[in-house]
Amino acid sequence: MADVLLTHSNHLFSDRKQTGKMQPYPALQTMIAAAVLREKGFDTAMFDPALEPCMEPPVEAFEAALDQYRPRLVIVCEDDFNFLSKMCLIRNRELAFQMAELCRLRGIPAAVHGSDASDHAGEYISAGFSFVLTGEVEETLLELVQGKPLESIRGLAFTGALSVRYNQPRTVRADLDSLPRPAWDLVDLRRYRQAWITAHGYFSLNIASSRGCPYRCNWCAKPVYGQNYHYRSARLVAEEMLHLKTVLGAEHIWFADDIFALSPAWTHAFADAVAELGAQIPFKMQSRCDLMTRDTVAALKRAGCAEVWMGAESGSQKILDAMEKGTRVAQIYEARENLRRHGIRACFFLQFGYPGEEWREIEATIRMVRETSPDDIGVSVSYPLRGTRFYQKVAGELGAISNWSDSDDLSMMFRGSYPSDFYRALADALHLEVRGGAGLAEAWDLVYELERRASLERVETVAVAS
Fold first, then answer.
1. Are 256 and 207 in contact (CB under 8 A)?
2. 3-state helix, strand, coil in the chain (%, to 5)
3. Global pTM?
4. Of 29, 250, 413, 446, which alpha carbon lies 20 to 30 A from 355's?
5. What whole-number distance in Å separates Cα of residue 462 and Cα of residue 466?
6. Alpha helix (H) residue ranges in 149-293
7. DSSP E strands: which ranges in 98-242?
8. How far apart are CA 258 and CA 125, in angstroms?
9. Which pLDDT does position 461 carry in this prediction?
10. Is 393 helix (H, G, I), strand (E, B) or coil?
């Protein structure tokens, strides 16, 4: 019998886009939480549903884990470093609810942690969870498992006398170096290795050097860390890289930080530590274009950086300003050139559909992509998440569905300038533009035709209204 069974609700085969990409990473936050509990002497097990080989949610495998470990408490602890968890996808929520019901039927109390649960605590408790762990998870989880009085545990939500009770929020930890390494032994790395080798010919693992993001893009939700940003010591991060490389057999690393290389001084210290330890290994990361200066990029190259994903978002300064992004279009061009100079792949996250974006602004983004020739792109449409100024701006236009079903949905959930099928066609055309492939001319023809139809409909609507 285990004291605690940890799990999460990210099942790769329930998401067609992620199945196609086949770049699975173990749930880093879940493994760190497990390591914290074990460090304090609790018998901790983990059920990892990510690569369960079925197209339906893996509820039978979860039931088997409940029968095997017979835990006193189950924690559905989402990976705070995984953007899929931050997107609060409906299919992830549905699997979490199914897990709660299975626990209820066995009389096992269940708790949940994650961005979606923090935003919808009442719904999760109604679905069968006894507790919702809001904010940063480790200390709240530890106090819950230790059996401290519920009323005294900061960052905990639970059923009160008449409604959901929310305790005082917990202050995020500043000392990340005190956390243990993730409990890698609780995950079947053979599955991950096989998936990576089969799809890509190499094995990649994940790591995080920091938590949070201090920037204030008004569409970005931060229910776990808020505006806080803290980072680990450069030396410890380099040592963990060496561990992934030499002990776990990683041939590539994904830095799962929201913002990597925010501090130039830290980045140079990191590069020095990597070189001293012989920990260099190709890695990809995400950052901002205004952080990719010549000196920082040179240090990243020295540490092994092979690919940088940046939130370019738009080629229109008007839209960047409306998003309160705090960057200039010129910095996208500069960052791309700095990365090209050092042989590092430059990849852009692009976002369409933000309020105020019309065809002129879309054309500016298309032009920026063509002029900078990024090595890859990721395309999304503006996605309203609770707790953001953007959400407040469009809340009155939202319908019953306020989350995507999976990461390839691309549905517009508010009244944008164009319908969802236009943005999906635009994403397809831009991907062909960057990645190559047959049918580029036809893809752009469809975009222009859908734009023409939408413009005509707007003219007709105005005419009828007048």
1. yes
2. 45, 15, 40
3. 0.94
4. 446
5. 6
6. 189-200, 234-246, 264-277
7. 110-113, 131-133, 156-159, 164-166, 204-207, 210-212, 229-231
8. 29
9. 66
10. helix
